[in-house]
Design brief:
single chain; 388 residues; mainly alpha; 3 domains; 16 helices; 2% strand; globular
């Protein structure tokens, strides 16, 4: 029997980023639909009842809005895809310096399909990131940051928790308005949208900033003393690592660049960046009572996302027609690509049951205490006397 506990948040983010990588390299609607199904199934199975767990629905609506906006912009800016005409809007002439851009004009069915494919890819990436936000505990994620990133931890807390706070604030404000006799039903919600929007935004920002202020008051992100030479060394390593990574990525993407600037330069840039992080983290001191540790479920969940990304990358590398299908005819897929996407559903079986209000009482104060190291503090004489 698996003990309910919270999975390490970094494992969820690695899994979600792997799915987002798969979505970013293809516009195949079959693969994107499978990715959406995998992310939705994992979220519905593995999320708890914390406030951030309710944010997935908001990301789904943001994805739907993204597809609609992409189609609207395609209608507005027109296109050059011939095909079956859906409607013809009067075109607006533009000056010569805006050559290549047209406003309105004829709109074909093939343009609609192309806009849907492009919007679906971006929506899938957003929903995969939303799945990580709904599954990972943002506070534990901040604790897992390397010491070099403690200084920006407060900003990251506000950025990550703002969407879950919006969902929780909307639920609270809606319940308060219903108690005051607000109109119910979909029509009543649409009419009361203006009365909900401002209190929701204000409450969400206040709660996120209160969390950031509490972290700052407790010394989170405070840097220790460092000499001038140490600061110069850290800055040089970080700048050199950034330049090396940018050069290496460009050389990997550009096949005409010298191969010496591809893999070797990318590896040297990553090594310099790691050394810079280590150098920056030495001047940050923070004690931990219980450090989060990884067990085999964390490794399995993270590996499922990485395997999905690598498998689909290899399967789609030599199949440009499958990765980016045309708007005429049905898209095709291979078994390797489908299996690569379905690997992402592995957390449904390997992830431990989430902590909820129902099982938290039976699990004890710390359901994952067996994975944490024992505290290094020695009990006092009084504590020894009370120990049975």
């Amino acid at each position: 029997m698996r003990v309910p506990r919270e999975l390490h948040p970094v494992a969820w983010w690695v899994w979600a980023i792997g799915l987002a990588v798969v979505a970013s390299i293809t516009t195949n609607p079959i693969l994107l639909g499978l990715l959406l199904g995998v992310a939705t199934l994992v979220v519905l199975t593995c999320r708890g009842d914390q406030p951030w767990s309710r944010s997935f629905r908001l990301y789904v609506w943001i994805g739907v809005l993204t597809i609609v906006i992409r189609i609207v912009f395609r209608v507005l800016l027109g296109g050059d895809v011939p095909g079956h005409l859906l409607f013809d809007l009067p075109s607006i002439p533009l000056p010569a310096w805006a050559a290549g851009i047209s406003l309105f004009g004829p709109f074909t069915r093939e343009e609609l399909v192309a806009a849907f494919y492009e919007g679906l890819r971006l929506a899938t990436v957003l929903i995969c990131i939303g799945a990580a936000n709904a599954l990972a505990n943002p506070k534990r994620l901040m604790k897992s940051l390397p010491p070099a990133l403690y200084e920006i931890g407060t900003t990251m807390v506000v950025a990550i928790t703002i969407v879950p706070q919006l969902v929780d604030s909307a639920r609270r404000v809606r319940a308060a308005q219903q108690l005051r006799g607000a109109e119910r039903g979909r029509l009543g919600r649409l009419r009361g949208l203006r009365r909900i929007l401002v209190p929701v935004l204000e409450d969400a920002f206040e709660r996120a900033l209160a969390l950031a202020a509490g972290m700052d008051a407790r010394g989170y992100g405070r840097a220790g003393p460092a000499t001038r030479n140490q600061r110069r060394l850290t800055g040089a390593l970080m700048l050199g690592g950034l330049c090396g990574i940018c050069t290496g990525v460009y050389a990997v993407l550009d096949q005409t660049a010298p191969r010496l600037l591809a893999g070797p330069m990318l590896a040297a840039g990553c090594a310099a960046a790691v050394l810079g992080f280590v150098s920056a983290g030495r001047r940050v001191g923070r004690t931990r009572y219980r450090a989060a540790r990884w067990a085999w479920p964390e490794y399995a969940v993270a590996a499922s996302g990485l395997v999905a990304a690598v498998t689909c990358w290899i399967a789609l590398a030599d199949q440009p027609a499958m990765a980016h299908p045309g708007v005429i005819g049905l898209p095709s897929v291979t078994l390797a690509a489908v299996v690569g996407v379905l690997v992402g559903v592995l957390p449904v079986w390997v992830a431990p049951p989430p902590l909820t209000t129902a099982n938290r009482r039976g699990a004890g104060p710390r359901a994952d205490a067996r994975l944490d190291p024992k505290p290094t503090e020695r009990p006092t004489v009084r504590q020894k006397a009370r120990t049975p």
